[in-house]
Structure formats: C-alpha cells, structure tokens
C-alpha cells in the first residue's frame, strides 16, 4: 500500500510538470531591441555603378557611396581613405546628400594611376552604429589625351626613333669590347645575340648619317677584334653572355656556361651584314672583312648535330656536355640558325638536318585560322612576335618560300593575329586597342615573360609592334604615334622606348634590353629601305645555303 502511494505521488508530479510545460512563457519585463546597424547601400562613380572596379576614370571623379541610414560626419575622416598604388594618401573633399546617408567624395587624381577608395568599419551612423563590412573601390585613371611632344612628320618620327635607339648600342656600348650590354643595368655583362642586332643597328646608323662611316668602322673593328682575340668560343660558337672586359663566359644558367648556337647565329647574322656593308678597297675595311670571315668560318655548325643526328642542338657546356639537350626545332626564332648552318663554307649541314630537325618533316605547320587570319606555321595563335623578328632582321621573307610555307604570308599572318587579338582584347585589359598592341618577350612588373595571345599578362612591349613595321605598316605606325605622342612622357627615354608597360596595372618599365631595342631600329630600316635585307641576302654563301635547303625567292 505504501508503494502504491509513492507511485501515485510520482505520477501526480509528472502530470503537474506536463501541464506547466504547456503554459505560455511569461513576457519579459524589458523587450529586446536589436542594435542599430549601418550597411552599404549603393555606389556610383561619375553617375554609374559598375561593381567595385573602374578603369579609364577621369582625374576629378565624383564618387557617391550611400548607406542604409545617415552617417556620423565626425567619423568619416578616420574611416575613409584614398591611396595610390604606392600606398600614399590622396587628398579629397567630401560632402553629403540624402539626409547625410550619402557621402560625396571628390579627389584629385593623376593620369594612368591606380587608386583604392576604402571605407572601414570605423564609419558610424548618426545613432553610433558601426559599418557592418568594409568597402574597397578600385579606380584606374585614363590617359592624358594631350600630345607629349610637338607633332612631326612620320618620316621625322622614324628618324628620331632610329637615332635615339641607336644610342643604346653606340653611346652605351661596352667601353672595352664595344659589344652590347644585356640591359641598361648589366654592367660588364654583354650579350652576343644582342650584339649581333647592335652591329646591324650601327650599319643603319652609318647609312642614315647618325654616325660617320669612320666612327662606325672603328667600333666594328673594336668589336670584331675582341670577338676574335678575347672572347671565349666553343667549337667556334659563342656563349650567351660574356664579360665585356675579359671575354670570359658569364654563365646564363648553371648548365648554360658554354656555347649557345642560337645567340651565335644572331651574332653571325650581324657580322655578315657588316661584312657586306664595309666593302671598300682600303686596308681597314679589307681587314675587317677578313676578320669577320675568320669568325664565320670558325663556327662548327655541323658539330652541334651531337654525333651526326638530323637536328641541331642549342647548347653545349665544356664541363657538362649536352646536359641541357635542347633541340632547335621550329617554329620559333631559330630559322636563322639553320640558314647559316647550311651556308657555312667550312661546316655546313645537309638538307636532312633542316627537314627533320627544324621542320619536323612538316610538323611545324599549323594551318588554322585565328581572328580571321590563317597561320601557316607555329603554335596556336602564333606565339610571341619575336619569332618573326630575330631571324628576319637579315632574311627577307618577302617572296621567300620552301616546302613548308610562304614566309611573307607567315610573318604577316602571325603579326595580324597578334594585332587582332589585342584589338579583340578577350581578357579586357585596360588600354589594349588598335593603337596599343604588341605581345612578345619583355620585362614585366617584377619579372620577364614571353607574352603572346596564349600567355597574355596585360603587358605591351613597343618592340613588338615597331619591329613589325614591314609586315603591318599601318597598324605599326599607329602604335608608334600612340607610344610617342600619348605615352611619351612615361615611355620615351634616353635610348628610345622603354622595354614594356601595362596601362592595366599602371606600370612602366625603366629598362632597356639589347634584344628588344635592336629589332626596332633594324626592322624600321627594312621597312623604309630594305637595307639590312639587301645586305644579308647578298651574301653568296647565304644564297647557296638557303637554295640547298629548298628555299626559293627573288632574293636568292
């Protein structure tokens, strides 16, 4: 009986608790009021909303940032800042609209500069609520439309560019060797390939009257004498870099401390062009030609087949041998190597090396159409434009053909694809257009890359468009005028146009590279007079060698 009473009591307690759980909860004595908040509401830059990134902004924009409630004006100064790319603060004025819920900001900007407008959570509403999330607005200003230099004729402009660019090779040439320094910060490091371009540039300078024939001859004597008597050579081939004082190899990389056959070919292209130009009967010019022939005949092109393979190899090291093991195969900048190797009076290669090693028995053909232009040879969309510059400083592509391509069509097609790509601008880089184009190998902000339609980082290199004048004269002249007149305050310097720039990132190089400056002056001259083409193609060895490879054309 006692257990029954306990059981009944427990049940009663559970019943009472169950009944209480169904009772409504009592109302709080003081209702909870959510805290006031301040939220971003709207943005307009010069009356337009385009997200949080704006390009081609004028120098005095009106920026309106609206919020969900009136702001505390006293908090604005600490919460709102405008900084340029370097982090420097920019002054501005502010006012208010819409019952103080809109801040109207009016800064004063410079041309071609990146700015960031930031609003931090320190911004408060009139009721002391903090901004819930920070805001960053990215602005890039446009280009000053005013001409930076007085207008001159196109011919005068071409003269000016050639004369100014020549200074890199003549005025800035290494004082001991006379060779071209790799870049304007290279000290005693000189480049063999860039020196070949520089030799051709000096021929142009003499012919244009920028330097006298006597001065030009003296410089060539210094260069050739240094190459013959001081510079290290490996089976007659030169390294990529040399010390301009001693002639010793400066390693290009850990394994690349010996012969570079491609760089050697650019040097020989220049030397043979100079040999043809200095054709006087006097002892000075006669000796110069003989010394050039000694260097030319000394290159053992056939040895670089690496045990008689049907291909040429790019590098050889005296202590690492063929460790790099890089074949020179097309389509790229290496056509001149095979043209010279086939033309050597002492170490020529047979046609099979060209067909198998360079042309891949036709595997270098493309045939696809990009941006409305069919490309005969090479990688998708053409690759960097230096493919159509370095070998063609001397080789005239016009009317030239073989089993694989018409080279007049190849050079023009590749350039037009590069141009059309920049005009189409599929990556929407600010600044690209019909007057601002050209993708090739160049410096970039913090590095170096071979820019092309398939490796486009937003950087334009003046050498790309300017060295293409023979192929796209109208498009290249438009670029030249734009680079000089519109961007000249940032792009034009002591040795002509700086190496590269990005309007999208508001970056301008302060560098000059021999391999980029050389093609500018040389290809401008080929466009104007064909001088270098005529000289190089007049070499009897070149005529014979290229014919042996199967080339046909009016200049052979």
Distance between the termini: 129 Å
Structural class: alpha+beta
* Share of residues in helices: 25-40%
Q: Please list the strands of the largest sheet in the order they lie side by side.
A: 1-3-6-5
* CATH class term of the largest domain: Mainly Alpha
Rg calculated over all Cα atoms: 34 Å
In this structure, how is the largest beta sheet organized? 4 strands, antiparallel
Task: Write the CATH fold name of the largest domain.
Answer: Glycosyltransferase
Characterization of this structure:
The chain has two domains: 40-141, Immunoglobulin-like, CATH 2.60.40; 154-548, Glycosyltransferase. The protein is elongated and about 105 Å long. The protein contains 16 helices and 20 strands. α5 runs parallel beside α7 (283-298). Helices cover 36% and strands 14% of the residues. The chain has helices at 2-21, 73-79, 154-169, 192-208, 213-229, 261-277, 283-298, 335-343, 351-358, 407-424, 462-466, 473-486, 488-491, 514-528, 531-537, 540-548, and strands at 40-45, 53-57, 63-67, 80-84, 92-97, 102-107, 114-119, 135-141, 189-191, 241-243, 259-260, 315-316, 369-370, 373-374, 441-444, 447-450, 492-493, 496-497, 501-502, 507-508. The model is unreliable at 1-21 (pLDDT under 50). The chain has a four-stranded antiparallel sheet with strand order 1-3-6-5, with no helix packed on it. A four-stranded mixed sheet has the order 2-8-7-4. The termini are far apart. β19 and β20 (507-508) form a beta hairpin. By secondary structure, the chain is α+β, with helices and mostly antiparallel strands.
């Amino acid at each position: 009986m006692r257990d029954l009473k306990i059981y009944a009591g427990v049940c009663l307690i559970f019943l009472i608790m169950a009944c209480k759980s169904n009772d409504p909860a009592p109302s709080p004595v003081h209702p909870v009021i959510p805290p006031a908040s301040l939220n971003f509401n709207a943005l307009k830059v010069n009356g337009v909303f385009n997200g949080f990134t704006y390009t081609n902004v004028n120098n005095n924009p009106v920026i309106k940032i609206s919020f969900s409630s009136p702001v505390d004006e006293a908090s604005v100064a600490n919460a709102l800042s405008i900084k340029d790319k370097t982090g420097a603060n920019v002054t501005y004025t502010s006012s208010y609209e819409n019952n103080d819920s809109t801040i109207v900001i009016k800064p004063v900007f410079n041309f071609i500069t990146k700015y960031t407008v930031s609003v931090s959570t320190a911004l408060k509403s009139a009721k002391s609520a903090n901004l819930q999330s920070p805001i960053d607005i990215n602005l890039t200003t446009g280009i000053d439309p005013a001409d930076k230099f007085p207008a001159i004729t196109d011919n005068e402009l071409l003269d000016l560019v050639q004369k100014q660019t020549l200074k890199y090779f003549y005025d800035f040439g290494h004082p001991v060797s006379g060779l071209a320094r790799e870049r304007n910060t290279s000290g005693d490091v000189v480049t063999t390939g860039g020196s070949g371009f520089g030799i051709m540039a000096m021929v142009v300078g003499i012919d244009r009257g920028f330097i006298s024939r006597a001065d030009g001859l003296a410089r060539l004597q210094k260069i050739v004498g240094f190459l013959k008597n001081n510079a290290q050579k490996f089976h007659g081939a030169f390294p990529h870099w040399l010390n301009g004082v001693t002639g010793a190899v400066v390693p290009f990389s850990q394994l690349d401390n010996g012969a570079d056959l491609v760089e050697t070919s650019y040097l020989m292209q220049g030397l043979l062009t100079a040999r043809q130009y200095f054709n006087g009967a006097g002892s000075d010019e006669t000796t110069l030609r003989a010394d050039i022939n000694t260097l030319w005949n000394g290159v053992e092109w056939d040895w670089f087949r690496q045990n008689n393979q049907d291909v040429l190899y790019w590098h050889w090291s005296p202590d690492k041998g063929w460790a790099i093991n890089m074949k020179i195969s097309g389509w790229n900048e290496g056509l001149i190597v095979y043209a010279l190797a086939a033309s050597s009076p002492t170490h020529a290669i047979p046609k099979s090396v060209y067909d198998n090693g360079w042309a891949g028995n036709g595997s270098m053909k493309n045939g696809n159409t990009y941006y409305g232009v069919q490309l005969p040879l090479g990688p998708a969309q053409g690759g960097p434009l230096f493919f159509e510059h370095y070998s063609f400083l001397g080789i005239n592509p016009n009317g030239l053909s073989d089993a694989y391509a018409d080279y007049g069509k190849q050079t023009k097609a590749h350039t037009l694809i590069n141009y059309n790509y920049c005009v189409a601008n599929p990556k929407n880089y600010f600044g690209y257009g019909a007057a601002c184009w050209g993708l090739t190998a160049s410096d970039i902000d913090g590095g170096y890359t071979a820019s092309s339609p398939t490796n486009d980082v937003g950087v334009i290199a003046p050498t790309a468009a300017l060295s293409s004048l023979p192929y796209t004269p109208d498009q290249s002249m438009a670029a030249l005028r734009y680079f000089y007149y519109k961007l000249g305050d940032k792009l034009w310097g002591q040795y002509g146009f700086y190496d590269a720039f990005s309007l999208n990132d508001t970056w301008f190089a302060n560098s000059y590279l021999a391999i980029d400056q050389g093609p500018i002056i040389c290809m401008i001259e080929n466009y104007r007079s064909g001088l270098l083409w005529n000289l190089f193609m007049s070499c009897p060895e070149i005529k014979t060698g290229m014919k042996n490879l199967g080339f046909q054309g009016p200049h052979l």
